[in-house]
Design a protein that fits this description.
By secondary structure, this protein is of the alpha/beta class. It has two domains: 174 residues, Flavin prenyltransferase-like (Rossmann fold); 210 residues, Rossmann fold, CATH 3.40.50. Helices cover 32% and strands 23% of the residues. The strands form six sheets. The chain has an eight-stranded mixed sheet with strand order 12-11-8-13-16-17-19-20, sandwiched between helices. The protein has a five-stranded parallel sheet with strand order 2-1-3-4-5, sandwiched between helices. A two-stranded antiparallel ribbon has the order 6-7. Strand 9 and strand 10 form a beta hairpin. The structure holds ligand PMT. Ligand PMT binds next to helix 9, helix 11 and strand 16.
Length: 401
Amino acid sequence: MKKHILIGITGSIAAFKIAQLVSDLVKLDYHVDVIMTKNATQFIAPMTFETLTKHKVYVDTFEREETFDVKHISLAKQADVVLVAPASANVIAKMAHGLADDMLTSTLLACTCPILVAPAMNVHMYENPVTQRNITLLKELKIQIIEPTTGRLACGDQGNGKLAPLPDLLQAIEIALSDKPLLGKKVLISAGPTIESIDPVRFISNHSSGKMGYHLAQQAKAMGADVTLVSGPVSLEAPYGVHIIDVTSALDMFEAIKKQAPQQDIIIKAAAVGDYRPTIYTTEKIKKKGETLSIECTQNPDILAYLGEHKKDHQILCGFAMETENLLEHATQKLKDKHCDLLIANNLFEEGAGFLKDTNVVTIIKKDSYQKLPMLSKKELSRSILYEIIALMEEKNVSCH
Ligand code: PMT
């Protein structure tokens, strides 16, 4: 059955951005209902949302309909999650004090599902102690605030008050809707490439985009985990609610992971770590001379092997293996050598697998079994990997929600 998402739109110029969010949610096959305040309809027409959702948009509590249900109650009952975005200072104030003087605020008062609020307003309105006090009241009521960002505001002022980016709103909705089997668990994930500098201009690296690791982090967060992502240089947006540590080289990644590892319940190493770095970093640009150039390299520490050696009893360690031949044989050897609980092996030459793509084709290898999965999106695959990990935790008798 489709999950029901209720979007409440209030009077803020950022209201126009919600059309894109609603369109994205409909494409993801959610049932989306929209309630607008009267002021919101000054910024964008209800027709836009009716066309996108194929459902009536509600503005007036007392509008008469053919059906005889009490609409603000039935919408509240059907909703699996509510997002108020953009949330004006006025509606935040009403919510904080239990006022229900229009269709949106009446419905919100009747909701028992999770409520998310994404403020958007002028910086001075946002920073006004009255608004801040109201936001604190909402937080105390377990209403989740999706914090605005800083930038140039529509009124021309500079400061905090811009609606959070749409991917953050989408992720916050998906997190609220998701089961939380990893609630209370700490998960460390590495993603992306490493960069090993030769001189101030050149470096050795690889083609990892970070997509695999970022999807894992996003899905672990959606499943309730407290997630830390150690990321090599990538051009992806940080997943919502995930603690990011940016690193450049394999040595940086090693230091960051060593510091984080002891506190973790689950560690997943999806990063493509450079096996070697130039032995000498040349501080000036290397000049062109001669037909060939040799660069002597030194081996980097094997971070996964270190984690395997220092693994705590309750920890689950999941490695990746990137192969171009004899996938099962090489990956099984890595599982053993690096003391992993499971290893996700992908063959770069397989259609739909490996670097950069939004899909992957993997074989999940455990100590005494393996399973090849069909081609999956990196998002779907991330959930499958995390459920494999949960099954292993249960086998190890480590409690999961
Ligand atoms: O980032 P994307 O574009 O989405 O691509 C995804 C991916 C192909 C990078 C990912 O699916 C993947 O396979 N990641 C592991 C890549 C890799 O380095 O594989 P490997 O077989 O060389 O290393 C085996 C394991 O040891 C990996 O978990 C790696 O993180 C780890 N390792 C390797 C070397 C090293 N010095 N330290 C390590 O920890």
